[in-house]
Design goal:
single chain; 314 residues; alpha/beta; Elongation Factor Tu (Ef-tu), domain 3; Rossmann fold; 6-stranded antiparallel β-sheet; 5-stranded parallel β-sheet; 18 strands; binds FE2/S2 (inorganic) cluster
Length: 314
């Protein structure tokens, strides 16, 4: 992975436990990459941790703006950023990746955020407004003090504070008009919230292809195959037996091939590669339904194989 050193240009407390971080090149040069709303970057911290955060700024602003929630059970990512980051600190940043981009079209865009799930949706909302594309943003938080970025969203946003899970499900039930061609629904928040959104949309007749979700928490640990199978890395010209309980990334590394990866949890998409032969056992939360069904893609950090042989284009 290619890293770019960027400097912390501003820090701002956006809510009780959410830190806004502005990053830009130290020499005021333009950023060496661009992105579309919904993208995220990896940060490589000086304590060795690598974490993914959505980019909230738009490319024309010339800097990255990230919103980092301090997680109570932080293993050194958000806690380190909240406690150690200072103005002027240099930090290594990957090029943006996007698994959650707005689909082209002119249909209604419905954005649903819960808590810090607002971070990828806020730039999508701004882009839709700029393009005069019909858009709605529904934003659920525990209360106003824990509603980062609410002030800058404008009055058209539907904000709901302090609702319990059952009340949120009730609210969602009446929120989806009949699906029309080109309409899309984009959702980010805790898994339970996203499940409620999907159920409400599906009940109203929305097709699964119109539903897009972004995970920011790792799913529960996935089961790993009890059987071994053969892994072929075609471009590297090597073959290795994947042992029961071993990940594809570990097996490849044992064979001397380091596959690119970042989160290691199936949520960021950094490791996704092309399948040439074999039947993937998908356990990630980053591929779309269409990508899974195509059988052409796999996230080797968590996924495995149902067949006896898996050939990857690596
Ligand atoms: S490394 Fe993040 S999805 Fe595989």
């Amino acid at each position: 992975m290619k890293w770019t050193a960027l400097q912390v240009r501003s820090l701002r407390l956006e809510a009780d436990d959410v830190l806004g971080i502005e990053l830009a090149p130290a020499d005021a040069a333009p950023l060496p990459f661009t992105w579309a709303p919904g993208a995220h970057v990896d940060l490589r911290l000086s304590n060795g941790a690598v974490r993914q955060y959505s980019v909230m700024s738009l490319p024309e602003e010339g800097h990255l703006y990230l919103g980092v929630k301090r997680e109570p059970a932080s293993r050194g990512g958000s806690r380190w950023l909240h406690e150690q980051l200072r103005l002027g600190t240099q930090i290594e940043v990957s090029a943006p990746r996007n698994l959650f981009a707005l689909q082209p079209g002119s249909g209604l865009v419905t954005l649903l955020a819960a808590g810090i799930g607002i971070t990828p949706l806020l730039p999508m909302y701004r882009q839709c407004l700029a393009e005069r594309r019909p858009v709605r943003l529904l934003y659920f938080t525990r209360d106003a003090r824990q509603a980062p970025f609410l002030q800058r969203l404008g009055t058209d946003v539907q904000w709901y504070g302090g609702l319990r899970a059952a009340q949120i499900a009730e609210q969602l039930a009446g929120q989806f008009p009949q699906w029309q061609t080109d309409a899309g629904l984009y959702c980010c928040g805790p898994a339970g919230f996203m499940d409620s959104v999907e159920q409400a949309a599906l009940k109203t007749g929305w097709p699964t292809t119109a539903l897009h979700r972004e995970h920011f928490q790792a799913p529960p640990p996935a089961a790993i195959e009890a059987h071994g199978y053969s892994l072929v890395l075609q471009r590297s010209g090597c073959e290795v037996q994947v042992q029961p309980g071993e990940s594809l990334i570990q097996a490849a590394s044992r064979a001397g091939v380091e596959l690119e990866f970042s989160c290691g949890m199936g949520i960021c998409g950094a490791c996704v590669c092309r399948v040439i032969e074999g039947e993937p056992e998908h356990r990630d939360d980053c591929l779309s339904e269409a990508q899974r069904h195509s059988g052409e893609w796999i996230a080797p950090c968590v996924s495995g194989c149902r067949s006896q042989r898996l050939v990857l284009d690596n």
